[in-house]
Amino acid sequence: MPYLLVMEYCDGGSVEDKLRAHPKKITVPMRVDMCAQGSCGLEYLHSRECIHRDIATRNCLIDKGTVKLADFGMCRATNVYKIDLSKPLNVRWLAPEVTVVLESLTISH
Description:
It is a single chain. The chain is mainly α. The chain has a domain at 15-80: Transferase(Phosphotransferase) domain 1 (Transferase(Phosphotransferase), domain 1), CATH 1.10.510. 37% of the residues lie in helices and 7% in strands. The chain has three helices and two strands, in the order ααββα. It has a two-stranded antiparallel ribbon. β1 and β2 form a beta hairpin. Residues 1-109 form the Protein kinase domain. This is Protein kinase domain-containing protein. It comes from Nippostrongylus brasiliensis (Rat hookworm).
């Protein structure tokens, strides 16, 4: 039986597109609000034991002033995320607390 996926259309485009198209029009309070809305979406996912794994402005869509998380292709239903230390990490996107844990692992060896 084929799967059916229903998706909502967000006519505001991505946060990334909006920031690139109108960098001066997006005020600091507007940016903070977008971040807060994205954080609320992440909090909801985590409460459902779901890890997105690809949070980026390109994956945050805007619809009528509301930021919505999108692109769940890398999403995992788990409450634990394991980092494979044998593979290179993109430090640019790591949360600061991850670097503290990595430093303690390096020092303890």
